Amino acid sequence: MASARDIRRRIKSVKNIQQITKAMKMVAAARLRRAQERAIASRPYTDKIREVLASVAPNAKEASHPLLEVREVRQTGYLVLSADKGLAGAYSSNLIKEVLPHVRGNNSARLITVGRKARDYFKRRGYTIDHEFFGFSEKPSYQDAVDLAKLLAEKFASGEYDEIYLTYTHFYSPINQNPTTVKLLPVAGIGDGEETPQTEYIFEPSAGEVLGLLLPRYLETVIYGALLQSAASELGARMTAMGSATDNAQELISKLTLNYNKVRQASITSEISEIVGGAEALK
User: Fold this and answer.
1) Considering the domain boundaries, does residue 202 fall inside one?
2) Closest listed residue to residue 227, CA positions, set 82, 94, 123
3) Of 1, 28, 119, 252, which is most buried, counting CB atoms within 10 Å of its CB?
C-alpha cells in the first residue's frame, strides 16, 4: 500500500494537472464563441454566391472555364483540413479515418494537408504529400483560403490533378462534429439541383465572363467556410475533452483523498495501539 506521503504527492500532481485542463477548457470556450460566430457569419455569403452561380450557369452553357473541365481521372488530390495541436479528443483521428478509405491503396491519390496532425500521420506512413500548411488551424484568415484556392486551381488547370476533394470537419455543436468529404473540382452540379434561384440577374458584359470571375471566388469561399468549420470543430472538441479531463481529475482527487484518509487513520490507530500496548506492558 502506498504511504501517506506518496498519496499526498499524487494528489498535488493531479490538482496541478486539473488546473491546466481547466484553464485550457476556458481558453477553448472563449475562442470557440468567436470561431462559431465567424462560421455562422460566412454562411450567407456562401449561400448567395452559390445562388448567383446557379443563375449564371444556365445562361453561360456555351462558356468554357478550366475549373469546369471534366476529364479522365488519373490523379486525384485531397485537401485535408486538420489540427495543429492535440488534446482535442478524437477530433484528428476521426478526420483521418474519413480520409483513409479514399487514399489507402490508391496510388493515384495525392495529399495537400493543413495542420500538423494530418501531415505527421500520413508522412510517417509513406503517403505522398505535395504541399503542407500549418500554423492557422485555430485562426484561419480569408487569405489562407485564397492561397489554397489558387494552388488547387493551378494544379487542376495544369492537369496535375484531374479531381480534387476537400475533407474537413463540419461543426454542428461543441459535442457534435462530423468529418465530411466534398468534391471541389471540377465544379459541377451548380444549377442542376432542385433549388432554383428566385432572383433574376442582368449580366454585364456577359454571363460567360461573369462565370469566369465567380468560379475562383466560389472556390475560395467554399474553402474558407470549411476552414472556419474546422476551426470551430477543433475548439469545440478541445473544450469537451478538457472538460472531461477536469471532471476525471476531480473524481481521481476524491478517490485519492479518501484513500489518504484511510491510510492516515490506519497509521493513527496503529500508533495508539502501540502506546496502549506499551502502557500495559509497564504495569
Assistant:
1) yes
2) 82
3) 28
> Would 271 be classed as within a structural domain?
no
| C-alpha pair distances (Å), 97 with each of 1, 18, 91, 240 | 43, 30, 10, 20
Burial of 124 (C-beta count, 10 Å sphere; 0-12/13-18/19+): exposed
Interacting residues of 75 by C-beta distance below 8 A, sequence separation 6+: 108, 110, 160, 161, 162
Specify if 280 maps to a domain: no
Residue-wise pLDDT tens digits, 24-64: 999 999 999 999 888 888 888 888 887 777 777 666 655 56
* Cβ(10)–Cβ(256) below 8 Å: yes
| Cα pseudo-dihedral 170, 174, 176, 179, rounded to 10 | 30
In angstroms, how far is CA 132 from the centroid of its own chain? 16
Taking alpha carbons only, the member of 67, 62, 42, 72 closest to residue 183 is: 67
What span, in angstroms and rounded, lies between the C-alpha atoms of 178 and 169?
5
Read off the CATH number of the domain in which 32 is found: 3.40.1380.10
Nearest residue to 189 via CA among 82, 8, 57:
57
pTM equals: 0.83
* CB atoms inside a 10 Å sphere around CB 73: 10
Tell me if 136 sits within 8 A of 82, measured CB to CB.
no
Q: Give the pLDDT of residue 149.
A: 93
Instruction: Count the alpha carbons within 13 Å of 170 in the hemisphere toward its beta carbon.
Output: 10
**Domain count of the fold of the chain:** 1
In a domain, 2, yes or no: no
Residue range of the domain that includes 165: 22-241
DSSP state of 68: G
